[in-house]
Structure formats: structure tokens, C-alpha cells
Target: ATP-binding cassette domain-containing protein
Amino acid sequence: TDNILEVKNLKKYFDMGRGSVLKAVDNVSFSIKRGETFGLVGESGCGKSTTGRTIIRLYGATEGQVLFNGQDVHKMGGRDLRSFNRKMQMIFQDPYASLNPRMTVGDIIGEGIDIHKLMAGRQRQERIYSLLETVGLNSEHASRFPHEFSGGQRQRIGIARALAIEPEFIIADEPISALDVSIQAQVVNLMKELQEERGLTYLFIAHDLAMVKHISDRIGVMYLGSLVEVAEGNELYRKPLHPYTQALLSAIPIPDPEIERTRERIILEGDVPSPINPPSGCRFRTRCPKAMPECAQIVPELKEVEPNHHVACLLYS
Ligand code: SF4
Ligand code: MG
Model:
């Protein structure tokens, strides 16, 4: 198999006390091929960050498996775990909160090199300088502190830190959401270049479909802890099948006024229900414009309804 990552029936529940359980991730399955970018999209609270954090072992799994290069991540120990900790890295939404304000940029980038004892002294220094140049900064920046940099530059530092120990797989949790629109494209382009040069695989998490459009090969859409649709990027934009994906796409402005004028905008009623007490059957049914009586009884499974196009909706079964 050329899958670097396989997520199988993953569940992550949080005990909220007094018998209530928050089902943040509930039976999610998908796989990512080596060298591809998988975009994971959904509104805040849908479980996309929790999915990412469970994949990289920041959280244990309640049920299900995460296989990285065929090995169960949550059963790893010893040398396998050390190797996993090197091969998978994470980039965060707010690079400022994730960069230690009292450390120099050079030491922030060098921390992983030190932890994994990859190199020291002059060699380590040269490596930090070269990483800074790789992400569009320069060697003089190594002695400065995070607060001296703009949001876009800080995200570049976060990327350099992730690259320092030569990972194979990077989870980017909303890496551009906090940045100005003009800076977002620069960071996405940098990530694409790095991917080509280094053969990286990305799980790219975002809260709207516009942000993942230019980087994702395939996209998964999440709603209330479940994956509702998975397809190649172009296919998903051209032919969204799930009513939730259709609504998300209809909210993205299209630069062509002719299309904009005739396009139907789908407004979803109500709020996202609580993941502590989700609706029976299809979790989207309380907001779905196409809901049918059986949607309250049957939990739709993610099924391949067209080649490489999976959807979890009773309209297609
Ligand atoms: Fe809507 Fe029913 Fe499909 Fe759920 S299963 S998305 S409620 S039509
Ligand atoms: Mg999040």
C-alpha cells in the first residue's frame, strides 16, 4: 500500500463528568497517500483538530486505530515511538502561542535537533541558518526573539522548527487562519514548494473550503465528529454531493459576477448541535434542507458512490 497514514474507525471521547460524554471524533476513517495533501475541513468544534491531535498522539484514542507506515501509532513504544516522534510533526494555528517567548529563534528551531541528538556545535548552527533560508528568513534572525516577527514570519519559524528533524508527515492545524489574506497565499506556496522538494505528506486542517483549495489533493469534510464527504479537490468543488458540503461551498464567493448573480446560496438554519447529545440518525438532519423521515433513524455510512468520491448521506443509498 502507498498509504502513509490510515485512520480506521477512530473515536475520541472526552468524559465531561456526571455521566456526560463529549463525542469529539466518532468513527472517522480515511487514508492519506505518501506525498499527498489531505485537507480536513469543518466548522469549529467539528472534531478536526481533535482528529489531528489523536493522530499525532497528543491524545490517546478511545477506540479505533491510527496506522503510520502500517504501524499502530497508539501501540508504539521505545525505538518505534522515538522514530515516530521524528517523522510526524505539527504546525499550529497561532505560531506565537506555540513559540517560547524566552527562547531565541535559533534555539526554538534547534530544540528538536537537540532532543533527537541529530547534530551539535557548528553543524547544528549551519543547519539552523540553512533552515531559516529555506523558509524565506535569514541567518541573522537566529539570535532574535519571536516577538520581533510578524504573524507570517512566525509561521515560517514554526515551519522551520517542524522541518528541523526532517519529518515525513506534517499536520498543519489551521496554519493560515490567523494570517492576513495577503500573507496566506505566501505561506501556502512555501508549504507546496517544501512538499515538492522534500516529498512531504500533509494533513492540512482548515475551517473553510476556500483555504484548502489551492493545496489539497483530496479533501474530507467533517460535521459534528463525523466525516461526511471525501473526494479529490476538483471533484468536490465541481460536484459536492453531501448537503452540508453544498452549503459550505455556496458560502464561498466566486469572483465571476455572472456566476455569483445566478448562484443559489444555501443558508443553514440553526446552530450546530452539542457533541455531548448529538441528534439520532444523521447528525446533520436538524439543519439539512433535504432531510427525510428515515434520516432520524439510520446513521448514514461513508460510502463510495462514484469512483474515489465517498459520501455519508441517505440520499445516495
Ligand atoms: Fe440530509 Fe438525510 Fe443526507 Fe443527513 S442523510 S445529509 S439528513 S438527506
Ligand atoms: Mg481547531
Q: What stands out?
A: The chain has two domains: 3-216, 240-317. The longest strand covers residues 3-15.
